[in-house]
Amino acid sequence: MGGRNVTTSTVGGKPLGRTELRRIDAWWRAANYLSVGQIYLMGNPLLREPLRPEHVKPRLLGHWGTTPGLNFVYAHLNRAIVARDLDMIYVMGPGHGGPGPVASGWLEGTYSEVYPDVSQDLAGMRRLFRQFSFPGGIPSHVAPETPGSIHEGGELGYSLSHAYGASFDNPDLVVAAVVGDGEAETGPLAASWHSNKFVDPRRDGAVLPILHLNGYKIANPTVLARISPDELDALMRGYGHAPYVVEGSDPDEMHQAFAATLDHCLDEIGDIQHEARTARRQPVARRPWPMIVLRSPKGWTGPEEIDGHRVEGSWRSHQVPFANAREDDAHRAVLEEWMRSYKPEELFTDDGAPVPDIAALHPVGERRMSANPHANGGRLLHGLDMPNFRDHAVEVESPGTGAVEATRVLGGFLRDVMAANMDRFRLFSPDENNSNRLQDVLDVTERTWNAETLPDDDHLAVDGRVMEILSEHTCEGWLEGYLLTGRHGLFSCYEAFIHVVDSMFNQHAKWLKATNEIGWRRPIASLNYLLTSHVWRQDHNGFSHQDPGFVDHVVNKTADVIRIYLPPDANTLLSVADHCLRSRQYVNVVVAGKQPALQYLTMDEAVVHCAKGIGIWEWASTHPDREPDVVIGCAGDVPTMEALAAVDLLREFFPDLAIRFVNVVDLMRLQDEREHPHGLSHADFDALFTRDKPVVFAYHGYPVLIHRLTYRRHNHANIHVRGYKEEGTTTTPFDMTVLNQLDRFDLAMDVIERVPHLETVGGAVRGLLQDKLVEHRMYVRAHGEDMPEVRDWQWQRGGGPEVVTADPEQNAPEG
């Protein structure tokens, strides 16, 4: 079925002989047949009898429109892999074309290898059809369940950044990345075209973008399909690509044109890499990388018309071209005619297996795109060669003293990690690596850059390993692609702007959850976020840069996947970072400040404290031999300092007050053990926070999250949380805490208000504390800086830190 138009192609020639042309077309027809069957059928898979209502699914779900184009490309890539012995994976931006790669994986035999019940026979084909978008079956997108996939495509915009991430440090890999024309309208995709300026053709693989223009989204035309060919050509050339166009709908002509174009592009890629890898003078000038613009009809090879309405080549073919095939005899007849047009009797044996011609087209073993190890990155994962983080320990002679930039200390450790792992570890940051104090990494590598370089530029090189582009989306996509193909990395970002990738994090977390339940998927390195330049030290940038809410978003994901750490000082940050870089199959969020701050724990105590995740700081508590009158808890570097300063005030005014000081590094320790693997039992939580005493908790982010994590606890009614409450401006560091009532004076007043015996004796002290807030306000308005007693405050109590937990014999949480 389908109309005809003139085939045009930038590259001429007819490289396919009669046998190759027949095999490619047979593969394409078989993949299309299997794709339609997945959308529509639950019985009678090879149409051995006329279609009856019970053969058609009661609920028709899926997307047909983009699928035949994806199948077309897949068939041609297979031919190229066999001819050139390519190591290639396939990233499909229009992931809603899920029937296609499932069909291709089944034709290649991989699907039956990982799912033996979906065998290459009639029974297996029936299961293949029935399971698609069916209760208890598989999703309609290119999901983790799909062999060969590293990119689901349920959310559009990330195909190119994932593809380039996969190519970094993979010199022999070619990543074919289909960009849908709807996807091409997204901001993340538009930025990711610039990824070619960050490729080193000597040591990286290659990405071949294939912009698939079929004209329509769900109901609207697509922008790039409706601009002039000259404008599109100029756009792609402006992005640094050499575009080659293939357009038409006649199958034989399109097969020849696409094969010629694909050969030409692969030859160009080979020339670019050969030139770079053999040139005496390095680096060589950057050349435009080839790309393909494929124009084909939406719903190609589908019904031309249904009920008097155009279908093939229109928006009506985007999802299910017609939805009444079960109830409507006429529609069911169209479906049968459509499926028979692919001539299944030529494609499958009587037993339902692919005929030998189809098997002869695809590569074998790990050269199959559905079985390529890069698409199951855990198979290729090698652990990092980890230096000893203790070598970077900060000396702490007395707790609560010093002025150390925690992330700068971390930068020294990451430098050593980078130096030891120059083939499998990279840093990703949207132009913030130095701002976040990680510049020591530049002692051993440069920033990746393959565009023009000027004499005054700082640490730019083609072979750099610090990935900086002012696009959080692109950094996230690069890192995800890098991790999914078996490598390691870390993404540092200003805390307020990590929200830009909220939905990307969502997709990756869902991917991890799904792969945890798929036996043949191997664990990959964790996605590590370092959030710094955080809310409490964005006083100079102001309100726009003040938002700690990413953690709230992360907590929504499944407990098996997410981990959240708020190390209070440099030594705890080092311990947490070492743990995160060694971990697998998690999203680790680490929040740490970059400004000079007090230090609390020696390295030995920091390691113990981080292993436990939560503990009582005896040195910061008063009368530890007694049951506490109040518990002061904290999580985060600035909240820890303000909570300690509040203790300092309270012990001065009320020397008999028994205060227990609890610091939290692993935020999920607050949750019930039934809800999170790191959660404390009720008994352990009560041992820390008591069952009936007031708790004043100073928290880095929005207070409601602490209530959410602790709402099941016996003492929840007595927990009072101070944190960020959306008050901010350009002001002093301490004034930020005052605006949000997280400051030491407000925390001390909270204690006075909540400890029963202080209500009658604390009035005068409360008045003094209120006076200090007035004094502070007047001082900062007059001097533009915090009062010296606040600015220079340090913990003055003697003795070294002693950290204990609710149960010292308890094992540290795994993961």
TrEMBL record:
<dbReference type="InterPro" id="IPR018969">
    <property type="entry name" value="Xul5P/Fru6P_PKetolase_C"/>
</dbReference>
<dbReference type="Pfam" id="PF03894">
    <property type="entry name" value="XFP"/>
</dbReference>
<dbReference type="InterPro" id="IPR009014">
    <property type="entry name" value="Transketo_C/PFOR_II"/>
</dbReference>
<keyword id="KW-0456">Lyase</keyword>
<dbReference type="GO" id="GO:0000287">
    <property type="term" value="F:magnesium ion binding"/>
</dbReference>
<dbReference type="Pfam" id="PF09364">
    <property type="entry name" value="XFP_N"/>
</dbReference>
<dbReference type="InterPro" id="IPR018970">
    <property type="entry name" value="Xul5P/Fru6P_PKetolase_N"/>
</dbReference>
<dbReference type="InterPro" id="IPR019789">
    <property type="entry name" value="Xul5P/Fru6P_PKetolase_ThDP_BS"/>
</dbReference>
<dbReference type="Pfam" id="PF09363">
    <property type="entry name" value="XFP_C"/>
</dbReference>
<keyword id="KW-0786">Thiamine pyrophosphate</keyword>
<dbReference type="GO" id="GO:0005975">
    <property type="term" value="P:carbohydrate metabolic process"/>
</dbReference>
<comment type="similarity">
    <text>Belongs to the XFP family.</text>
</comment>
<dbReference type="InterPro" id="IPR005593">
    <property type="entry name" value="Xul5P/Fru6P_PKetolase"/>
</dbReference>
<dbReference type="InterPro" id="IPR019790">
    <property type="entry name" value="Xul5P/Fru6P_PKetolase_CS"/>
</dbReference>
<dbReference type="InterPro" id="IPR029061">
    <property type="entry name" value="THDP-binding"/>
</dbReference>
<feature type="domain" description="Xylulose 5-phosphate/Fructose 6-phosphate phosphoketolase C-terminal">
    <location>
        <begin position="594"/>
        <end position="795"/>
    </location>
</feature>
<dbReference type="InterPro" id="IPR023962">
    <property type="entry name" value="Phosphoketolase"/>
</dbReference>
<protein>
    <recommendedName>
        <fullName>Probable phosphoketolase</fullName>
        <ecNumber>4.1.2.-</ecNumber>
    </recommendedName>
</protein>
<feature type="domain" description="Xylulose 5-phosphate/Fructose 6-phosphate phosphoketolase N-terminal">
    <location>
        <begin position="19"/>
        <end position="379"/>
    </location>
</feature>
<dbReference type="GO" id="GO:0016832">
    <property type="term" value="F:aldehyde-lyase activity"/>
</dbReference>
